[in-house]
Amino acid sequence: MDIKEWGCREVSRQGVVAAVQDTVADVEILQRSACAGCHVKVLCAAGESAVKTVQVAHQGNLRPGMTVRVSLEERIGWIGVAVGFVLPLVLVVTVLFSLSRVVPREELAGLVAVASLVPYYALVYAFRGFFARIVHFRVSEVDTGTEEQRGGAPFHIVRKEGTS
């Protein structure tokens, strides 16, 4: 069943296939700040960009250097935001306010509240297999066309240290 039939929105980004293993392909996506394309970004140092690597299921037609579009259901992204940011914030605030009434020193209550994140993220790490099963990236080939059709200048694969 197609994602459009469910009425779900999807988030998609263009990327370049960096490597292909047996069942997994690494796709590098250029993440740019809003002012990364500005001509004076060198002077103000506000423009940043980073390359993020996403592992997708290799469908047999992917090859290194291929330009692709990687898509993900928007609701899956919101689940990631909730698990990674919202729930930990709620946990820290709840523990902090609960302990501030019991523990006489605020510093100790704050330290325990922050330390409560260790078991939380250990639990998230323990369930990483579950999260890997619910997160499904879709990959489709992109017609590279001209630079104007792509909506900007192309980007190049940036290798991380220690990789070939």
Automatic annotation (TrEMBL):
Q: Which UniProt keywords apply?
A: Membrane, Transmembrane, Transmembrane helix
Instruction: Kindly list the residue ranges recorded as spanning the membrane.
Output: 76-97, 109-131
Q: What is the top-level taxon of the source organism?
A: Bacteria
Which Pfam families does its entry note?
RseC_MucC
Query: What is the name of the protein in this document?
Result: Positive regulator of sigma(E), RseC/MucC
Q: Highest lineage ranks of the organism? A: Bacteria, Pseudomonadati, Spirochaetota, Spirochaetia, Spirochaetales
